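does this look right to u?? S-adenosylmethionine version
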Amino acid sequence: MFIISRFKSRFLRKMSCFSQVINPITGENTWQEREDDYDYHQEVANAGFGDMLHDWERNQKYFAALRKTIGEMRSAGREVHVLDIGTGTGILSMMALEAGADTVTACEAFLPMANCAAKILEANGAGDKVRLIRKRSTEILIGEDMPRKANLLVAELLDTELIGEGAISIYNHAHDELLTEDALCIPARARCYAQVAQTPLAAQWNSLKTLPNLDGEALLRPPEQLKACQGEAALHDVQLSQLPPSSFRPLTDPVEIFQFDFQRKAPREKQREQLLRLQSKQPGAAEVVFYWWDIHLDDGGDILLSCAPYWAHPDIKELASKGKDLPLANVVPWRDHWMQAIYYIPKPLQLLEAGQAFHLSCHHDEYSLWFDARAEKPAKAVRRHTCSCDLHMTYSRSRIGQMNQSPRNKRYLRYLEESLEAGQSRVLVLGNGCLLGLASSALGAASVKLHEPHRFSRRLLESIVKHNELKNVQFVDKLEEVEASQLASLTHIFAEPYFLNAILPWDNFYFGSLLLKIKDKLSSGVKISPCSARIYALPVEFLDLHKIRAPIGSCEGFDLRLFDEMVERSAEQAVSLVEAQPLWEYPCRALAPPQQVLSVDFSKFSEEMHLKGSIELKHPGSCNGVALWVDWQLTDDGSPRSIVSSGPSEPVTPGEFVQWDMFVRQGVHFPRTTKEAISSLDWSTDFRPLLGELNFSFKPKKP
Ligand SMILES: C[S@@+](CC[C@H](N)C(=O)[O-])C[C@H]1O[C@@H](n2cnc3c(N)ncnc32)[C@H](O)[C@@H]1O
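got this back:
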């Protein structure tokens, strides 16, 4: 989606400036020289325009609705004057023109995009036929910017939540000021759906569970304030179809909760609530609401586009028979610009038997939705809830899930149980929200120092220390403040490692940078865990994810290469060669076994490394991505049980779909696509730890 809020008109003046950036690996503030249009390039490159224009179903259905509506208006003897709000590349305006509109006015608020639209319209022979207004629609004046009101509005201003990009106000203003009394709109209407479900997997992303020891006895219990917290109401947008079927139990069928009539002349309400009395299909805890929407593009309701997950998709039978070689979850049209959402119910409601009735209250304001489920009908409107316990406001959903991730926690706890000596060990824990480090206190360590400079994370851990009556824990703000004698007496240094500034898995190498600060003061026998880390690369064939960076070329017969060029120019300046993505949401097949591309020993962290190699592809396919992740080695005993991986959760077999850890984002590099087959991938890694630089390059090689 295009984001206009941070648009700066200064992008046209090309100057460079220095801006302060925290290097996640060194933790240092560094000054980076950047062209002062850097923000603009980031905006353009990361806006995901490509994905939207690769959404063939969206494009085809908008075009079909324009043809149908304009055809019907003309048959009825009406002139057709189209307004395209948020024209982007100008695509919908060009469609309207080709469908026979008398006049087309396009407006675009994001100036670089509007300038690009002007060039695209020109290149497609529509430069003098579409009136382009470089303004927000709410600033348009009839008589000044447009000679007359429009009688057909086409716009694509929707997001995963439907209304998150401000559609309610934009439509209200358009009907008040810019559209005739009898104006039609494409899309004409939207319907929003909710399905109540129990899902221990998603619940794990929303609340902190008790941390058990290896025998299953409680080691750390969450304090009352965490149990009482209602969590954040904000949506959790996910590719819902990719949730493993075994990870959730639907408690209701999908139900329609709101309708938005974009054509209605009366204003669309900025706030609404809907109370539904539902019956559970089976016993379970109402923990979450799955949410999606569909749109009728035309007034007659013939052209429907649904964002439903596969199990609720209206065309699933037809799609499944057409896409026999795809997993069922992937037969529905793919898009990343509109996903589905999970909303967490503030207090899960236990439904003890099938048929039990309960009340689902659904709310929206101008930009967002929230939900609640209760046994009794609520007496008054349920207010949007927010985090009151520090957990949700400090940590991402994937990190909260990771804190609860049992197989992973067990590996760390096994190490701690085997390595700590009760009443003897003195542990320094590095990392944010390191509950496992805190567990070393519950496991009997003589003293535990937690380096936790983050205010809210520290407050959270302090409450856990208090609730669990841990006596020997001390918090440390700055490592420099720890006395040399205390550092010398440490027996263990422990990390997961996890740091709040980390985006890519190896950003957590900050652990190594912290170690360097204290290395000379440590005793020679101190045990450091993890002792090393290995980065692996895996060439893959994505079913869809590569589209977010793939050029469009032509879309429904319109030439959008000028748009591709604009995105490419921005991507060169603003997009890093490896980006973080939660790969469990984006199926891909492995094309080779994973290969190690870097190994870092934390006791020698300052060593620079420059490595090269080649990965031979073992399975035919188009190598449209390289996945990268870190395996943390807790000890050097060589046991697979001492490895905690942020990559695949099952062994990788070339030619098969990769199962990814669902609680971290992996790194992805999108190679320049080539139509020719490649036989191998040459790679090189450059690691300069003291500068915090870790760069990869991948070059496809032809047979
Ligand atoms: C999702 S894109 C759609 C682009 C294009 N219509 C398409 O379908 O490919 C939405 C565009 O609307 C623009 N936009 C959002 N609100 C707007 C407004 N009120 N007036 C003008 N442009 C707006 C954004 O800058 C963005 O370029």
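Residues 1-15 have pLDDT under 50 and may be disordered. idk if thats expected tbh
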